[in-house]
Design goal:
Number of strands: 8
CATH topology: 2,3-Dihydroxybiphenyl 1,2-Dioxygenase, domain 1
Number of helices: 2
Strand order of the largest sheet: 2-3-4-1-5-8-7-6
CATH architecture: Roll
Oligomer: single chain
Length: about 140
């Protein structure tokens, strides 16, 4: 199954969790002090929020895929049109381990294409306190 992915930066994580739980009619499937995620079937979406001191609003959009093969198929289609594509293997991001590609559409919107294969105990690669992590520590394209 493909799921639309939207990652939002929020100022108040608890207030936002209350809002999105009411909006979606479901509790988050993962909740941390700085992060929450909903895996929705109707609509088919992976919605994540985090509070890391970045500007509030949409951080990036993406597509969550069920297999590495599905991920590579999307990358092949983007490579065929010479779209910008940056691979990221075995990334620890948003309390998950994923293989991913980052891309930008013609207007510059950031797209994350990913296949998650395991959970992670940390928000980002370094395991440092996410409140003090640089903006590029997680969920940002490498280039």
């Amino acid at each position: 199954m493909k799921r639309l992915h939207i990652h939002l930066n929020v100022k108040d994580i608890d207030q936002s969790i209350t809002y999105y739980t009411a909006l979606f009619g479901a509790e988050p499937v993962r909740r941390e002090a700085d992060y929450a995620k909903w895996m929705l079937d109707e609509p088919s979406a992976n919605i994540a929020i985090s509070s890391h001191g970045r500007k509030s609003g949409i951080d990036h959009v993406g597509v969550s895929l069920d297999s590495r093969e599905d991920l590579d198929a999307v990358a092949d289609r983007l490579n065929a049109i010479t779209a910008p594509l940056t691979p990221q293997e075995d990334a620890s991001c948003c309390y998950a381990r994923s293989d991913k590609y980052w891309s930008h559409d013609p207007q510059g919107a950031v797209w994350e294409l990913f296949f998650t294969f395991a959970d992670s105990d940390t928000y980002g690669e370094t395991g440092e306190n996410p409140q003090h992590a640089p903006a590029t520590a997680c969920c940002s394209p490498a280039a």
